[in-house]
Recover the amino acids of this structure.
């Protein structure tokens, strides 16, 4: 029999045929390879298995498959490449063939199939007995390549089913649906603090400096110094004392230094570290280093070191750039007072010149050159020692702030694999009540927040288009213990995942496709009003981008409503953090709500004048109403002969004869 198939599947039954004699034939997919099993008539177990170890057919392309049994031998051909095997006994074929499945408890074939031929006869699909019309589409082959482009990161292998892709993260050092979440420590500081390390106990550790970023994990040595500093050391291939002999010409000995880390990893370590250094020393016996004193203003040393920028350096470690000296020349205590390096004295015994390189801009040492070591037969000799690249301090974790609020963090992704989102930070607190650690609200229907619900529970809650979901992480130990704990939230095309302290992982399938945009970040400080304890946050990163100190200083959370920081709905006992708890170090919380300060005073004065005018008008009107009933026109009877005269009389006199006419 023969057929052609096209699939993305790794597993699935292609053909099952029960012999009329006891036994069966099964052709199936396993890990993307085609295999054929033939069971004997006696044991009903597969005694012959044929497979192509080096051929994968789950690549979405058409592949031709041919199987035959003849003269107690079986053959399996894939794309005209054939493997054969012997059969233990004669078999008789049966009448029916199951194509694409039909085996109880086994996964069926998902993909396309054409050109089926059995015993030389083409079998048209019109003659097939189709078990389910809903599962079989005749006349077309529509397969979607869910791995183009691949959603998998960091070397993860994209695999796919008929309707979705998934990632195999084995041996990558990453986990999660898309191999994005690092399984390693972020820094030596994080590792040593978590382990409670003490000085003088170096440990080799694999760390991932940028977490889910593009930098690969690197093996380093982590150690706490006697001064309490957390030191990260990168090894290289020339840490042992290296002998230099038989190289007389200037710089004729050339040693390139090979570090146990990629260049971009070392560069990142130098950037994020507070300080870095590398020691270099040269032990000499009658072997000159700088050939001092310099004659004619021409610096022509026998030995020198090359910076990482591939620049020949004009000083020896321990001295200053451009000095043409060693450390002893700078101090004025060289073995020969007329020289600027101990080794330039030509002394028959062993001397040394060395020191530390502390300028991060030129570290680490790329190469070394030496000369003036004569021949292997004379007494001239030199030995150099280059230490590991060492760095201490981590600017990402040195600044401690309070509750984190990001502006315009959540948005809706249109389609495709696209922009993955990740938020990472560390927190430390001793508060007993619940508290918000991280918060963002775009509008009424879109927000996210991380809440420390209790001493052993963290909840990540988010809402997209009014649909509220959450992930609850319950710890086996207290996390409000005053020690640093890590929170990593990853949102990708397949899932939303929360990792706490690198080992507690909770995830759910989610298709809302929330993303975090690289916009402006605001970090403020929050103090729990019930206990007075501050929640400390450090190492905030969004999409692998660290929030610099300059971006977080003296910022105020603008237009924050009290309900924004209300507890999440899963517990009715959680207290609300008031608006007044959010403030900057140098400003009042009121500034957050009155952004138009310059207009407040004139508006207030105008309002006051308007109020006074209204009050005066009301007073006049009330006065007139009270007194209008005692005002009349009167006509008095006078003794003279003059005519009547109308008079406006406020208070009528006694004994006066009058005619009253009320003013209309």
């Amino acid at each position: 029999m023969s057929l052609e198939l096209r699939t993305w599947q790794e597993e699935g039954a292609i053909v099952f045929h029960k012999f009329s004699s006891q036994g069966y034939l099964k052709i199936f997919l396993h890990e993307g390879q085609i295999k054929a099993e033939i069971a004997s008539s006696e044991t009903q177990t597969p005694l012959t298995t044929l497979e192509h170890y080096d051929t994968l057919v789950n690549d979405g392309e058409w592949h031709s498959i041919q199987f035959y049994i003849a003269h107690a031998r079986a053959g399996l051909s894939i794309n005209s490449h054939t493997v054969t095997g012997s059969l233990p006994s004669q078999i008789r074929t049966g009448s029916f063939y199951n194509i694409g499945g039909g085996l109880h408890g086994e996964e069926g074939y998902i993909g396309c199939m054409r050109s089926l031929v059995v015993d030389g006869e083409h079998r048209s699909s019109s003659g097939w007995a189709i078990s389910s019309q809903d599962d079989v589409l005749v006349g077309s082959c529509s397969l979607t390549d869910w791995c183009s482009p691949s959603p998998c990161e960091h070397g993860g292998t994209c695999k796919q089913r008929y309707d979705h892709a998934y990632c195999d993260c084995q041996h990558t050092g990453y986990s999660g649906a898309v191999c994005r979440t690092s399984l390693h420590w972020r820094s030596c500081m994080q590792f040593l603090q978590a382990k409670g390390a003490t000085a003088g106990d170096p440990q080799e550790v694999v760390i991932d400096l940028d977490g889910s970023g593009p930098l690969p994990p690197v093996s380093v040595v982590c150690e706490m110094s006697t001064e309490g500093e957390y030191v990260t050391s990168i090894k290289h291939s020339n840490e042992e004392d290296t002998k230099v002999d038989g190289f007389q010409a200037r710089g004729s000995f050339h040693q390139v230094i090979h570090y146990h880390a990629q260049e971009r990893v070392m560069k990142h370590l130098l950037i994020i570290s507070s300080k870095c250094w590398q020691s270099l020393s040269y032990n000499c016996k009658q072997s000159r280093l700088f050939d001092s004193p310099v004659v004619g203003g021409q610096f022509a040393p026998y030995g020198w070191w090359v910076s990482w920028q591939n620049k020949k350096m004009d000083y020896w470690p321990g001295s200053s750039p451009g000095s043409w000296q060693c450390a002893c020349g700078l101090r004025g205590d060289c073995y020969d007072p007329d020289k600027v390096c101990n080794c330039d004295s030509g002394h028959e015994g062993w001397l040394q010149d060395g020191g530390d390189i502390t300028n991060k801009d030129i570290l680490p040492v790329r190469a070394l050159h030496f000369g003036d070591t004569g021949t292997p037969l004379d007494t001239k000799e030199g030995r150099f020692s280059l230490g590991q690249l060492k760095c201490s301090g981590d600017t990402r974790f040195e600044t401690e702030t309070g509750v984190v609020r990001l502006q315009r963090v959540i948005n809706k992704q249109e389609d495709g694999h696209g922009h993955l989102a990740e938020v990472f930070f560390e927190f430390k607190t001793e508060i007993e009540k619940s508290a918000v650690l991280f918060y963002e609200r775009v509008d009424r229907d879109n927000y996210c927040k991380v809440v420390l619900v209790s001493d052993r529970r963290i909840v990540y809650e988010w809402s997209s288009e009014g649909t509220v979901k959450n992930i609850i992480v319950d710890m086996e130990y207290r996390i409000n213990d005053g020690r640093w704990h890590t929170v990593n939230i990853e949102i990708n095309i397949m899932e939303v995942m929360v990792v706490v302290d690198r080992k507690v992982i909770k995830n759910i399938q989610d298709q809302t496709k929330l993303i975090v945009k690289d916009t402006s970040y605001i970090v403020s400080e929050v103090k729990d009003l019930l206990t007075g304890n501050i929640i400390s946050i450090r190492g905030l990163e969004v999409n692998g981008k660290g929030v610099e100190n300059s971006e977080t200083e003296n910022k105020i959370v603008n237009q924050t409503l009290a309900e924004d920081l209300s507890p999440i709905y899963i517990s009715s006992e959680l207290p609300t953090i008031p608006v007044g708890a959010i403030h900057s170090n140098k400003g009042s919380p009121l500034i957050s709500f009155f952004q138009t300060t310059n207009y407040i005073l004139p508006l207030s004065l105008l309002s006051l004048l308007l109020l006074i005018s209204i009050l005066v008008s009301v007073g006049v009107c009330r006065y007139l109403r009270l007194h209008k009933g005692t005002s009349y026109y009167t006509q008095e009877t006078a003794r003279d002969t003059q005519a009547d005269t109308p008079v406006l009389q406020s208070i009528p006199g006694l004994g006066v004869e009058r005619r009253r006419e009320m003013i209309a």
